[in-house]
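W.,

You were right to be curious about this one. When I first looked at the sequence I had no strong expectations either way, so I just let the prediction run and decided to look at it fresh. Below is the sequence, 339 residues in total, followed by the output.
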Amino acid sequence: MKKTLVTGGAGYIGSHTVLALLEAGREVIVLDNFSNSSPESLKRVSEITGESLNLIEADLTDRQTLNKIFSENEDISSVIHFAALKAVGESNIEPLKYYRNNVSGSILLLDEMQKAGVKKLVFSSSCTVYGEPEKVPISESFPVGKVSSPYGRTKYMMEGIIADFAASDTDFSCGVLRYFNPVGAHASGEIGEDPNGIPDNLVPFVCQVATGKLEKLRIFGNDYPTPDGTAIRDYLHVVDLADAHLKALDVLDSSEKGFVCNLGTGRGFSVLEVIAAFEKANNIEIPFEFASRRAGDVTEAWADPSFAKQFLGWKTNYDLEEMLADAWRWQSQNPNGYK
């Protein structure tokens, strides 16, 4: 059986995707340095699926280990590349750290894939490549590059590097998946989003307020030009997102052509709407306060997912309240995450 290497496979999106791959009968090798994840997530994935997986603890920038993985597993036929630092705010403070890890590490991966003759890649990109859009919903034809953070720029740079690499090798194909805002957790409540320290993303922040771990939610900006003054995002369930990676691999397996897809629900919700939906879904009140806008945040971003539906045969299956109920189930069963 052909194997798939998953970089960053112990992380939030990675662990849900590894679970989906195993349930689909695929053989998986995971590479992760656990800088923002835990091996416990993959232990639980194995328990949920009843399947074992090959886990290698190493950094993406470790060329020797990458070379060894490919040389010892000549049946690797594809790579799903999640491994990246992802905090928008932190990237403004430590940009070189983000370029070193996200860009240099990805180039090393491409180099070792080329040496090993591995020609299929699914790349974890982001809607941040669009920057502040002129209008919504956002389709794949919108201009990219006017990014508002070093994190977004690393994703934009890697998309360009991958496109150049694919142009130089017509046998190489990549599915670039531009995520909007993944939330939720597996229905078991056994795996979910486990950020280090104070969460950078809205829903984990809300969940930690709900547990009493944090006193109140800080909403960054209430003066945006939106109906209620708070920023609007497209939230999609992480299980739906994981499914998109399987469908992307299936398309790459049957075609030599690369592609770019937006992954979102096609509907935007404001921060205040998310709070209200969480309170309704879980019958918990969330106290909050307003703070100044956060550098790098855009006003409004939601997807036109029609191409993903047509090309990948993919659609979302969960509404916002279901996403938030699943997020709370994970958090309430694991108040300290994987610790």
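Here's what jumped out at me. The domain at 3-184+235-265+304-316 is CATH 3.40.50.720 (Rossmann fold). And, maybe more interesting for your project: The mean pLDDT is 96.

Coffee later to discuss?

I.
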